[in-house]
Design a protein that fits this description.
26% strand; elongated; 1 helix; 6-stranded antiparallel sheet; alpha+beta
């Protein structure tokens, strides 16, 4: 389990974020009281009672304002869920990139093989 401590500018502990083996992020206050959760599989942030706070990574919103400096911990603007068309386009783009990477690896391996062959001949 990965754990990160969030601190203020004056190095006061604001919260802790733990990531479990399923990838779910849990935020706790400085006293280790659970404030909420973020599940990357569903892209949802929920409070300690599993009520929806919003979509996207919004755990900093759950830090109480009295703990954070300058009136609030700040928020991360949520990303709206992708439409099916956007999801397909993103998946296709990732597939093209993966193919380019594979082709580059193959070219590199062939070039290395050719250089080794030339070196062996000399």
């Amino acid at each position: 389990m990965s754990k990160t401590t969030l601190k203020s500018k004056s190095h006061r502990v604001l919260a802790h974020i733990e990531i479990d083996s399923r990838g779910v992020h849990r935020i706790t206050d400085h006293g280790h009281k659970t404030l909420g959760y973020y599940d990357p599989r569903t892209n949802r942030t929920t409070d300690r009672n599993h009520r929806l706070v919003g979509y996207g990574y919004q755990l900093p919103r759950l830090i109480p304002a009295d703990l954070a400096e300058e009136g609030g911990a700040g928020t991360i603007q949520p990303q709206p869920p992708l439409s099916p068309k956007q999801s397909r386009a993103r998946a296709e783009r990732q597939q093209r990139i993966q193919q380019q990477v594979q082709q580059e690896k193959t070219r590199s391996a062939e070039k290395l093989r050719d250089l080794r062959t030339k070196l062996a001949k000399t």
